[in-house]
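Q: Protein A?
A:
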Amino acid sequence: QYKMKEETVRRSKQVTFDLPATINNYGQGIPVVNIHSTNDDTLVTIQEDGFICLWHPELEPKETKHMFNEEPANQRSKRVSDFALMSEYNKLVIGTDREIQIYDLFALEPYCQINGLETFPLTLDYIWSKLPKLENIPNITAETAVLSPNVTFIRWKVHQDWVTQAKYFHSLQAVVSSSNEESSSLVVSCDQTVFSVHKGVKTFDLCQKHNLLVTGGMDRLVRLWNPYFSKPTGILKGHSAPIFSLCVSSEDSQIFSLSVDATIWDIEVQSCLFTADPRASRIHGYVSACSYNSALKCLYVAADRMAVLTLKSPRLNRHVHVSFNEPVMCCGYSEEFHQVVSCSEASVVKVWDLNTGRQVSEFVDTDDLTSITCMAFDPKGRLVTGGRNGCLKIWNFNSGQCLKTLKKGKCQEVCDCTFLKVQRNCVVAVGKDRKIDIYSSNGHQEDILCVVHCPPSLLATGSYDGEIIAWDLVSGHIKFQQKITKLAQTDKDTLLYAADRIGYVYIYDMEKFDLKQRSPREHSWRAHTSTITLQIVDSDQVVLTSSTDQTVRLWSAQGQCITFGQPELWSVHIPSSWIHPRVPYDVLIDPLSMPDHEFLNGKSHLSEGIESDMSE
């Protein structure tokens, strides 16, 4: 019940991207190092080769310039690693080969530079604030950087690998930096709080509203952290590839993370609100940067081309009746129940009556809240769904109960599934792993009623519908199958005794099993005329049977009738006292005991001759 309430809250927050994204091909091919916005919503991007572009919010180029075009021909070309905006001074700060260059933002002309750095600046950030001098914290004013011939840098080493990102957050009064090195993946400088993350941190941001640091990296997880506590307060799973970039909208309590897909997360509920895969968004290639404009509700993405994803609420015009509060991914018709079943991206399944169009029931896959991508029905009318997590699930859609989860290999999205009947029932799934996965419904279709172990590596089971299955315990594969009601096994060998509904007893030698044979049957006989049970008495090498035909009988291990309960004296150890070679009278006269012979089946040459004489 709590999960259902939580899901209701999550669905009320649902947002989507307007797909596909708006793409601009201008300047494509060279990675963009970062994206920033000015106070008038002008977008600023710089490529690694120094090509700068100022964009309108609609992603139309406003002004462009190549910053390094005037370099001498014999000089090695420079590479931009990062840049920052000094909006208060209308300046642009660029990090390049052991230099920090400052340009006029709108004239795009050089203003000054700081050169002779000991190392290549990988990431830059700028703070406009009257800060007190802090120990071990850089505190260099813009005036000092411009006017002084000697600029002093204060450095402190907190990472053992390259720094992937560094930012100053005014609300924390601290510089936060990240690295791909696990032991010091994220460091908050004010109190030297160190966060350890598997495979390091590639990107991070701060939600000022909830005072949470949000990180992403090579392990495909989005983590939420209290800046003063080194354990994550939340972990968001859903990406199938490393997270290259992320940003936070504190106003909306949302996280935007970029992997091969673009995903929106809700911070308060800590769940996925929407995911756009590259085929839907048309954003391809390595994502080098992203930036969110909360006023325009736009996410700007730099990949192989510049793109903008606009947020939209899924709520339509009040005069338009909608079936879901989120996109509907698939629907199908159940002939068995004469109902329509539809599934949404939020894992909501709704069942509708085909004749009236009224909703019959609704349930939510609350286990992992993974988006349902496809569906099918099996011959019994059960619902089969595929999801973005690579799993197939079989449902009783009238009760909302998940009957079985099918999963193979890596968790790649299932794009479609269907149900086939070739010898045995099976579900076929296809998806982003570029493989055709066949899930055979091998095994019992009804309740399993009995089981016996056949050493060393065989297990035999019998089900309510009279089927026996012998399993290989090592591989899990089925050795053979047959309709059966009772099983028993000898202690000293691998003989398996089985009984069916019409009174037959079968002996199987599991050591002589041949894959080319349908089953390894050694011998069989009819012991009763109705459903029987059996027990093996190993000490005397006899088989005890009983039946719903009101009889109990004793047999030799090879099916010779000893009988049981007759008034004449007999001994299990004296074969001459047995009924054999006679058989019980009820078995003898029963029509189902007749042998399978071509003469009795009307297929002999004699019958053909009689028919020809009669025709003449």
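Q: Protein B?
A:
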Amino acid sequence: MTRAAQRAAAAVPLLPDAGPVARPLDWFCTYELGAATVLRRHGGDGGGGGSSSGQRWLLLRQNCLLEYESAAAAAAAGAPLGFLNVSCARVAFDVRAAAAAAAAVDEGDAGGGCAAACGIRVVAVAAAPGGGTEEVEVVIAPAARKRAAAWCDALRAAAALTPESLYEFAHARGAELGRGRYTSVHRARRRALPPPQGPAAAAVDAAAAEHDLALCALKLIDKRRFFRRVAEGKERPDALVREVLAQAVLTARCGGAAGGGGGDGGCAIVRLRGAFETESQLVLELELMSGVDLFDRLSSGGVLGDADAAALVRSVLRAADFCARAGFAHRDIKLSNLIYPRRARDGGAAASAGDVRLADFGMAGRVDAQGLLHGRCGTPGYVAPEIWRAGLREGYAARGVDAFSIGAVAYTVLCGYEPFYGGDEGALARANRDARYEFHAPEWSRVPDDAKDLVAALLERDPTKRLTPAAALAHPWLRRHAEAEAATRRGAGRRERETVCCGAGGQPGCAVM
């Protein structure tokens, strides 16, 4: 296969040549560097931590250098053999180091002949195998020596990338969509390249003209603040990895960041569009929602009617069931984590009360082979009792954790207040742990018995007796409203088909036959 055919198969553009007229890189594109001899040394310049070398095929995605065994392996879009985040790395030409890289591999391998003339030395900080970080030195000798300058320029530019390099967004307090102990969420737009001039202008991707494709929500995670909380015992060290893993896997099962075909039809989650990491920040690019969550909706519009409440609960149960089938539990389902999607043409209004997306996977957990979760987390008032009762490092059943939280949401949207109450945080925690609640009059007098039955089945204290999200979806209350909605849709479709426009050859206007 020729290099041109390989690039076409992988849909990865070749890195442009360096020079004064070189076009700026599109940092939302993955670039093919090509074949190279690569030597890695761990543990600093002395190489005390060991070294490895070989022939590799390299790609560059933002500030990540990806190593593949061959062009075919890169085209297959599988997992790379290795990667290096070059954020804040030192990048320079190094002839002697490149010669050493060439000597470290078999003499017959491609690339050895030009190594002494076109070596690039990258020194970066990476995670150490035993924990913490270490300095890693990577020496790259491109097989095509004329490409070395372009590679070096691209790696230097990648090392200097920041969130501001990639996105336009406001930093000022009050301009955020949300803020946490070590996070902030911003409305943002991907930075676009200036349009090409001359004949190249005709080749501009038509998608770039789509206004909404560049808009996103940007979650900025301050790694220093996060690890300070880890050192204080207030956060689990794997929390960030779990969040990215959960959203990446769930987004892929949804059909990708754009939500295209091939995904699971039940995934009502906020999708992850990309991740970017620097020395001090982890940046998650997410779908841009309306900024209106379920708490806002209840605050402005009051409790939901029976049909709207059923539609909402059904949507959240489907989202939780989708997570469960992918092997995850959200563990923090609550009003503020149920967000209404943004509509491009109507200013962001949601289509219906049930049209919500599950957001914020910061407490998500991967279910182990025994069906257990580990780690006590959640928001008091919504936490499953088994999480409260779990001991330190003790696992608990995953099957009904999110169902209990959805029960608390369902209770709240039907009556206007939360099920568990306490005069202080301790009293609230005890009421939540013991699942002590009541259906008070007069608020619950108007709620149908089948709705109360589902709420009670979800707020069951014993997880072995509690309905799972999958089982709850078959509850009579939800089935009754789903059948009514289906009948309404069928009636609307029938009326639409029966409408005949007869302006041509008869009286203008429409008649219903």
